[in-house]
Amino acid sequence: MKLTSDSNSAAACLGRVVVADDDVLVREGIASVLTTAGYDVVGQVADGTALIEAIRRSAPDLAIVDIRMPPSQMWEGIDVARAIRREYPQIGILLLSAYVELETALDLMEDGERIGYLLKSRVIRGTDVVDALARIAEGGSVIDPALVKELVNKHRRADPLGALTPREREVLALVAEGRSNSAIGHQLWISEGAVEKHVRSILGKLELPTTADDHRRVLAVLTYLDAT
Amino acid sequence: MTSVEQQRTRARRADSLRRALNEEAALRRVATLIAREAAPGAVLEAITLEASELFAPAAIQLARYERDGSATILAGSAADRRDGASSSALDVSRVLAAVADSGRAARTEEVTARVQSTGPGSAVGVPIVVDRATWGALLAVSTDCGAPAANAEARLVEFAELAANAVSNAQARNALRTVADLQRSLRRVATLVAQGAEPKAVFVAVAEEAARVLAVGAVSLVRYDPHTGMFTKIYGTHGERASVPDDGQWSLEHCPEGALIQATGLPVRIDDWTSIPGPVAARHREDGFGQGVAAPIVLDGVIWGHIAAFGEADEVLTPGSEDRLADFTNLVATAIANAKTRDQLRSLAESQGAALRRVATLVGQQASPSTIFNAVAAEASRALAVEHVNVVRYEEDGSATVVGATESSRFGRAATAACVAVVKEVRRTGSAARVDGSTDGASSVAAELGSAIAAPIAVEGATWGAIVVLSADALPPGTRTRLTDFTHLVASSISNVHARDKLIASRARIVTAGDETRRRIERNIHDGIQQRVVALGLNLRALREQFSLPDAMGLALDDVEEALEGLLAEIRDFSRGLHPTLLSRGGLGPSLRALARRSPVPVTLEVAAGMRPPAPIEIAAYYVVSEALANVAKHAHASSVTVTVSVDTTAVMAAVADDGVGGAALRESSGLIGLVDRVEALHGTLELASPPGRGTTISIMLPLEPNVSKERVLPGGSVTGGRGNLEVDL
User: Which residues of A60-79 are buried (b: 16+ CB within 10 A; e: fewer)?
Assistant: First the structure.
């Protein structure tokens, strides 16, 4: 484990982050991106055990965790995320994975808010990871758009989503990704009030309960999309 | 006393003496006739003639009483017939009736008032008593007015006794002849039965002989079916006169004699059809049949059928006819029983051959060893008619394992001990062994089961195992030999099984190795290429953040980043197909749902999995569904597909059914052929139903206990049942 020097400590710090990935180049790369974005990377680790140790030591605000880590290279990230959630429920967690699976997403969402689940490839481009971290830090949940797209585009015999307008489908996808109304408004260049109207219409058409809680809304929409 | 008186007296004495001498001579002549066994008719005729001489001018008549109370004059003096005095005929019948009623002598004066008599004449009658019954009467009838001599009765009685003697002798001879006749008939039929003639031949012989012995024309042999309540005529002697042809059927209510037999189980006699209702009785009356007798054929305590004999309308069937018929029915029953035994023997021989064939077929069909061994146990059980059969395999550690067993109830400790004993003995000696109450000395074993026999199964020169037979009854001789036939069969099938096991194992190894390779490649891609590309992307991003680049270059690098992301997506799709990582964590439900989500054809998914099957089976089921869905997407032109998966404690079943064009086949190129290998390596089966135009259904069954996993290995030479038929602490 290597502790990153607190070079930007004087600057406005977006949050303290620990990065866990067994590939040193990826780890370093992510740390570099985060540092550039204004995060304080307080730890870089290669496996789950080291991650727990780093968290105990550094008490970070956020952890970026690769799901596959030694020893089995299978699901360590999920298990360690659970452990962190149990012991340090205040820490936001962003899980990175080669694949995004709905079952895993639902599993993670059940553990509460401030959880993100993104494809590993999202770290390459622009602001994807940085943006996700910010949303998690603010208390939101993040679901990879690829998974949402898969769910929304699923071939259904009798598609209940057919009742939605194209705009409503866009809004639904963004809701499923865990975005807040204001974030959706931002992205679609419409007012937050318009988003709210769309959301109410969508939930009504899909016969889903309305909720002010973004996280609950994500769970409800994901469960709905899975079930239909 | 005057000389005239003296002369008269002398003459009377001389007359009396002469008459006495004549009588004696007459009686002696008749007695001689009887002693020579002259025909009864001739004897009776002689008696009548002799008496006529002595009693002249009175006429002598000999009458026989009939069943119906009438009397028949069998012999009579010429004088009477010549005169034909009607007046005396009346007296005669009265006297006859009086004799019949009283069984004693009677004369006219006693039975009729003289004044009322229509004419002169009188009659004296004495009974002819045979076997203490009044068989007939001997009569002296006079046409003049004088009454018969006072001592006429006494003199007639001597002749009557001779007549009785003659009749009785004749009857005895008759009875003797009848018995001899019957026995000759029975012998003929019995010979047929002993020679193992077909039942039909015996039936024909029985009917014909019975007809001969009973002196009737119509004898029928009839079978009764208690389930249908129908009689079937097997054979009848009366050909075209029969109201029912051979093999014809009629019901219980149409067969009065059969119904009586079914009701009583005893021989029956029908003397008079006029009192019996129903169409058969009517037909019998119409056809002119008289008395009828019938006797049941009893087989194994059940009325199998009956024999019926019918006389002509004017014939009298002698008393006891039904009992004589019963003697024949016993022979029929024996013939049927023999035929049954023969059939059983034949079917036993056939069944053993068939048993061996059935097992051989199983081996040919590549059934699992446990299926084959259980089949061997079941077939041996059936062929040897024993309840408990175990197929046992010897293990290297000295224990034995039951690899096949009959589905039988559990048996106790003593049985187990006997079983263990024979199994040990076979292993020690390499030849068949037997334990039973007498040799074992353990009375508990004897009480519980008669015998335990084990025969070795020798494979490649070693005692591979044994077949063990346990029976509550003493096992018949020859069981050991016949058991050996089965051990040979097991031995030869084991060689096949060995070879096939090796083949299956090698297929399984190939499939497993393939899976392992795919898993390794997937991991290599993940840990290697993917991480390299991610690192590369991160590198690029760092460089871009480090240097301020011209806008055009920035846009170009955006494209590069996008391309890298696209590359990662391709890698992701590729490696996801290599190995379903979600399967190991989430099981069939989640991973099949993920498959269904990505299917371009809408999928209805039904997964009933209460438990996780072993990984190789789970993986196989997943791959089958995955490959089948890929095929649907590529070839089926389907509008929807249904995936059904169920997991229980015995098997995983999966079916993928689409509504597409059908016509799929397990061709090398189809991608389905690889699934067959995968499924069969796990002892499973794959079926493809794809009629053109009617969709395609691929279904698989993967047993959770594919091998002899039911068996229990026990230490220290102990044996236990493969199907829970032994429950013993060992």
Answer: bbbbbbbbbbeeeeebbbbe
